[in-house]
Every structure is written in structure tokens, then in C-alpha cells.
Design brief:
Shape: globular
Order of helices and strands: HHHHHHHHH
Structural class: mainly alpha
Largest sheet: none
CATH superfamily of the domain at 59-190: Tetracycline Repressor, domain 2
CATH topology of the domain at 59-190: Tetracycline Repressor, domain 2
Number of helices: 9
Length: about 190
């Protein structure tokens, strides 16, 4: 996962790491990617600047790790409620729309996440894989009846469509509503 896996931490270290992630989320939500400065994160989290670098090698890794945590929370919330719809495609679209709405509610945070997860920083690679795993888990329920090989392909394509649509929104090529529309179109084409 990150520089220092959260499972390798003492309770005190885990608490500090959690405060750092929360601080990054707060700053990104308020002002986007540029508002997340490591000194400000340290001050907000009430930790030394060096503490942040013990857990995260870069700002992009910090934000990407925050995305993994945030997306995991959204996935757990959505998985606790059954997806609505008569068909596999309907249930898949329902889950994707719900997850997209969570991102639409906080455009600054979403923009920061997309910028960080798109980074070529090698420290972000594990987080990119973790986000893909969260997406796979998110759609696992609606796609439970689909054969595994086909399901894996659907998840892979939806990941790219989602990322492309988010990138378009963040860069002003489209609007927030387009993300859900693109995901629905892809889901309905992939699952018939």
C-alpha cells in the first residue's frame, strides 16, 4: 500500500496516520489539490512535518491513500444496502450512480483525488491498484451472477470509463452529471 503499511503501525502511529489523512481530506475539500500543502497538513493534523513523510513519500501518495480510504468507506456504505433494479445492468447502474453522487457532492475533493491518482509518481502505484480493487468490490454485488472472466473485463472497462469521465469533469471538458451518464452508457453496453 503506502510507504508504511497501515497494518504495520502501533495504535499511536495509526492514530497519527489517520489524523494526517483526515487533515488532507479537509484541506482538499476546502480548496482542492493546491490547498493540500504538507506543512498545512501537519499543522491541521497536529503532527510534525517529518511524521507525514514517515507514512507518505509525496503529496500525491497522501491524497491517493486518502482516496483509497474514502472510496472504501463509500463502498462499505453502498454494499450495506442492496442495489435496486430489475436487471443486472439496472443494479450496476444504481450502484455506480450512487458512488458518482458521492463524488459530485464534493467537487474540490474529487478534483484533488483525480489529480493525485493520475500522478506518474511511483509512490502512487499501489494506491491506483487499491482503488481498482475497491471498484471491483463496489460492483461485486450487482455483477455476482456474471462469470468471473467476464466480470473482470467489465470492471476493467468501467474503471477506465470512470477515470476518463472524471478527468474530463475535473479539467472542464464536461460537467459532473456527465460522469454518471458515461458510466451508465458503458454499463448498459457491457451488461446485456
Amino acid at each position: 500500500m503506502t510507504s508504511l503499511a497501515s497494518t504495520d503501525l502501533t495504535p499511536g502511529q495509526a492514530a497519527r496516520r489517520s489524523r494526517v489523512l483526515e487533515a488532507a481530506l479537509h484541506l482538499a475539500s476546502d480548496g482542492g489539490y493546491d490547498a493540500v500543502q504538507m506543512r498545512d497538513v501537519a499543522a491541521t493534523a497536529q503532527v510534525a512535518l517529518g511524521t507525514i513523510y514517515r507514512y507518505f513519500r509525496s503529496k500525491d501518495e497522501l491524497l491517493a491513500a486518502a482516496l483509497v480510504e474514502w472510496a472504501g468507506t463509500i463502498e462499505r456504505q453502498l454494499s450495506a444496502r442492496p442495489a435496486r433494479g430489475d436487471t443486472v445492468a439496472d443494479r450496476l447502474v444504481h450502484v455506480l450512480r450512487q458512488a458518482t453522487r458521492a463524488m459530485e457532492r464534493d467537487p474540490n475533493l474529487t478534483a484533488a483525488f483525480v489529480t493525485a491518482i493520475a500522478s506518474p509518481d511511483p509512490a502512487v502505484r499501489d494506491c491506483q491498484q487499491d482503488v481498482a480493487a475497491v471498484l471491483a468490490q463496489l460492483v461485486a454485488g450487482p455483477l455476482a451472477s456474471v462469470p468471473r472472466a467476464e466480470r473482470d473485463g467489465i470492471v476493467r472497462v468501467l474503471s477506465w470509463v470512470w477515470f476518463g469521465a472524471l478527468l474530463g469533469w475535473v479539467n472542464g471538458w464536461s460537467n459532473a452529471g456527465t460522469v454518471g451518464d458515461e458510466l451508465e452508457a458503458a454499463a448498459r453496453l457491457l451488461v446485456r
